[in-house]
Amino acid sequence: MAIKVTIPLITFGCSWTYGVGVGYNTVMDSEQYKKIAWNQDICDSLSFRGLLSEKYFLKNKNFSSGGSSNQRQFRLAREFFSSRRFKELQNNYDKILVLWGITSTARNEVWSTEQNQLQNFFYSDEKLNLSKFFTKFCYSHENEIRILRTEMRHWNTFFKNSNIDNLWFDTFNHHDYNAIEIEHLKPHYDEVKVPSWPNWRDFSKNQFNVASDIFEEIMDPRWPWPEFFYPVDNLIFNDENPRDLLSKLAIKNKCQNVDNRYHMSDWEIDTNRVGHLVNCGILNPHSHHPTRQGHEQITEMLSPYIEALL
After folding, report:
1. Cα–Cα distance between 112 and 118 in angstroms, integer?
2. Range 141-165 average pLDDT
3. pTM of this prediction?
4. Nearest CA to 128 among 286, 69, 13, 136?
5. Which residue in 59, 51, 60, 47 sits closest to 17, CA to CA?
């Protein structure tokens, strides 16, 4: 019979979850920094996933990696949770936790016939043919949010049915997963012609609350309720705006007038949140990943949510 001692913490995400750059210190130049930025031992121990694991006696199984796309993380999850390794984990432990960080939508993973392998890439990489093609013909941030919403609801169902406690968090951008897309609802309204429907201008101001009220009043089978009205559960800072870790760090460290510019995370200061946190020593000046102090602050933010599951 297996001995059940600790609790597995399975982590998904990008470089922030992996811990890229957490070994930085202020005397390092950029070349010295690059030599240690992806050191696995340093990242495993000093990242917030490592600190949370140490604090709560968790056994971390990590799938996050530097530069990872959401598509890559969902693929890795499908492979792992359908594998014998996962079945063994279930047999050996009474409780399993999943902590999953959502990254920028401007990334992807597809099969490359040139490389003859899966290739994870940034849409901002102007030197890569894949980036040019997808940016021009295939990328829509709004569509990526719709896909994320569907994926997250699917995995919530899977984890619930598998007796797994899971948490999601936005890493460095706030995403409105539960926003109601008016342009998709309007054709259904035209079909059903519900007389009590509010005018569209008022509806757009308070989309989800109004839609929830309508949901209670209208049960017409022609309406696609699951697609539009079921929210994403288990989101850390769910009721707050912004909810992403980058913004939370900026607010915690007294950044004035935190902007909501979309952070691409390609080592550029493209939002005042990044510039402020670099000046505070919370992000390093070379790649703008959290320093050790930054990971300690993130650990402090996430701790109450982990504790609630233990």
Report:
1. 6
2. 94
3. 0.86
4. 136
5. 47
